[in-house]
Amino acid sequence: MQPDLSTWNEELIHNLFDKDNASRILSIPISGSSLEDTLVWKIEGSGTYSVRSWYRDQWKAPEAGIVKINFDASFLSKDRIAITAVIARNSTGSILGAETYLYENIEDPFVAEARACERALLFAKAMGFRRLAVEGDALSVIKSIKKRGNDFSVIRSITHNIYVMGLSFDRISYHFTPRAANGVAYALTLEGRRSCYCGVWIHGLPSSVVSIARKEGLQLHLDGSLNPQVWLMMNKASVAFMASDVLTDTLLFSSYLASGY
């Protein structure tokens, strides 16, 4: 902000965030009065931070033998396109594979999220995964799938197809997760949009995505989901890498939480 003018510092905002999120931030009105700034914890209705709320909104590893696939979508309304992302991890938090995909002629963000979930199952089938936990931050999509697409939503034809595809797996479940716990998938949508890459990421994931995944791997140890010796072997080499990426991740999550999709 520029305190003297009560306006956003547009040059700084555009340097820190991508065009879409910068536009969203700049659209937030700034009070012209001299009210003091107040810290608000967005996740809680009370606006108060608590350790319990922070813990609840962390990525959780699946049980052994299950592959968890997180999905997300970035919707560009002006161009009517969506970049979807899916990323698969196992019970130790190890990344098993990831994909970004471009859809054209997308009507709204609900359709974009539904297509992202659909890509999650297509990706799982191509990778040979048989036991899945599919997770995303689009509550309307998850609810529609659990209704087997028998509702009156605009995405019912897609979610019905997702339900039918799911029957071909040995085990599958669908879960809603808060957007704060879906950061890896969201980061991958941004990388897919930035690089214009569509397909399976077979040559390694961007450092921004890997760094967030590693931090979530650290959380597995804190909540007791991962054997400490296994956790130590996975993360010992990543501590220095993560420390150097603190600023990058802070900006990425700020962009994530400012996003409407």
Name the descriptors.
Nucleotidyltransferase, domain 5, RNA-directed DNA polymerase activity, nucleic acid binding, 6-stranded mixed beta sheet, 16% strand, 261 residues, alpha/beta
Judged by helices, strands and strand pairing, the structural class is alpha/beta
Number of helices: 11
Biggest sheet: strand arrangement: 5-4-1-2-3-6
| Secondary-structure element string | HHHEEEHEHHEHEHHHH
Give the percentage of residues in beta strands.
Answer: 15-25%
InterPro entries: RNase_H-like_dom_plant, RNase_H-like_EbsB-rel, RNaseH-like_sf, RNaseH_domain, RNaseH_sf
Protein name: Reverse transcriptase
Keywords: Nucleotidyltransferase, RNA-directed DNA polymerase, Transferase
Pfam family, one: RVT_3
Structural description of this entry:
One of its GO terms (molecular function) is RNA-directed DNA polymerase activity. This is Reverse transcriptase. Pfam families: RVT_3 (PF13456). Residues 70-188 form the RNase H type-1 domain. Keywords: Nucleotidyltransferase, RNA-directed DNA polymerase, Transferase. The chain has helices at 10-16, 19-26, 51-56, 109-127, 139-146, 156-166, 183-195, 207-222, 228-235, 239-244, 246-258; strands spanning 67-76, 81-89, 95-104, 131-136, 171-176, 199-200. It is α/β, with parallel strands linked by helices and 261 residues long. It has a domain at 60-204: Nucleotidyltransferase, domain 5, CATH 3.30.420.10. The chain has a six-stranded mixed sheet, with helices on both faces. A hairpin with a 4-residue loop joins strand 1 and strand 2 (81-89). Helix 1 packs antiparallel against helix 2 (19-26) and helix 4 runs parallel beside helix 6 (156-166). The radius of gyration is 19 Å and the shape is globular.
